[in-house]
Amino acid sequence: MIVLGSTSEVAQAFVEKALQEGEKFERIYLFTSNKETTERFARHIDVKFLQQSEIIELDLTKEINYQNFDYINSSLLFCATGYLGDGTEEGLYDNKNTQRIIDINYSKLVPVINYFAQKFESRRTGTIIGLSSVAGERGRQSNFIYGSAKAAFTAYLSGLRNYLFEKKVHVMTVKPGFMATKMTEGLPLNPKLTATPKQAAECIYSAFKKQRNVTYVLPIWSVIMLVIRNIPEFVFKKLKL
Ligand SMILES: NC(=O)c1ccc[n+]([C@@H]2O[C@H](COP(=O)([O-])OP(=O)(O)OC[C@H]3O[C@@H](n4cnc5c(N)ncnc54)[C@H](OP(=O)(O)O)[C@@H]3O)[C@@H](O)[C@H]2O)c1
């Protein structure tokens, strides 16, 4: 199994859930921009599940040498990579912040997924799970750079699913609403609409087993987004969302 964004608590909870359910992986490749924190998780799964894992450094803001990944083979890729950035007015007009959000959520991430998608395609097997966001469904003033990068990522996953369908590779898009993780630490989230990493992992694992194409984390978000998508633009543009 390949994990992108290994310090994500959702990614870690998904790995644990899969192992608890008896999924067998020859090796778990933990891609991370934060080796130290990932080492703790790697040790944890090595001890608890006698699972072989390997940590691979990947910082999407730096140059990537794909030859280093040539030996990696797997049939499951879980991508939890994401970056919220600064959604304030200062953040919006700070080009560094804007570029970083676009790079980590979309432009630098897509080539990495493509690299592994091609491997899956040539072996005619595998599943790619990508965590996008409900933020990608409609641009809102509070986080539309992040939302637009996620919209692009959602469209990418949809196209990849379509492209790989006949090649026997499945692509699942996950659209989380709020999740209580380090990304949202300190934000005033409504607890009724917020999933814990464990809850999120359970939703995602169940959708993975059912080979879903698109899934929301916490079903209530599919209803919320149905409403949000259908608010007429002349009303929507006046809302403080
Ligand atoms: N939390 C929410 O409410 C929420 C809502 C909707 C969607 N999402 C999406 O769900 C996914 C998981 O998010 P999370 O809540 O678990 O947040 P998170 O803990 O911040 O996870 C995102 C991961 O992205 C990786 N990452 C960040 N910068 C990177 C860089 N420069 N290069 C490579 N990797 C980088 C990090 O993994 P490493 O440290 O291992 O590199 C980080 O753990 C993300 O795609 C996020 O956008 C989250």
Descriptive report:
The radius of gyration is 18 Å and the shape is globular. The protein is α/β, with parallel strands linked by helices. The strands form two sheets. The protein has a seven-stranded parallel sheet with strand order 3-2-1-4-5-6-9, with helices on both faces. It has a single domain (2-236), classed as Rossmann fold (3-Layer(aba) Sandwich). The mean pLDDT is 97. The longest helix is centred in the middle third of the chain and has 21 residues, at 144-164. Helices cover 45% and strands 15% of the residues. Helix 4 runs parallel beside helix 6 (144-164). NADP nicotinamide-adenine-dinucleotide phosphate is lined by residues 5-10, 32-34, 38, 58-61, 80-83, 104, 131, 133, 176, 178-179, 181-184.
Rg over CA atoms: 18 Å
| Strand and helix order | EHEHEEHHHEHEEEHEHH
Q: What's the CATH H-level homologous superfamily? A: NAD(P)-binding Rossmann-like Domain
Total number of helices: 9
- The number of strands is 9
Mean pLDDT over all positions: 97
| SSE class | alpha/beta
Q: Strand order across the biggest sheet?
A: 3-2-1-4-5-6-9
Amount of helix: 40-55%
**Percentage of residues in strands:** 15-25%
Which ligands occur here? Answer: NADP nicotinamide-adenine-dinucleotide phosphate
CATH class: Alpha Beta
Gap between N and C termini: 38 Å
Which ranges are low-confidence, i.e. pLDDT below 50, for 5 or more consecutive residues? none
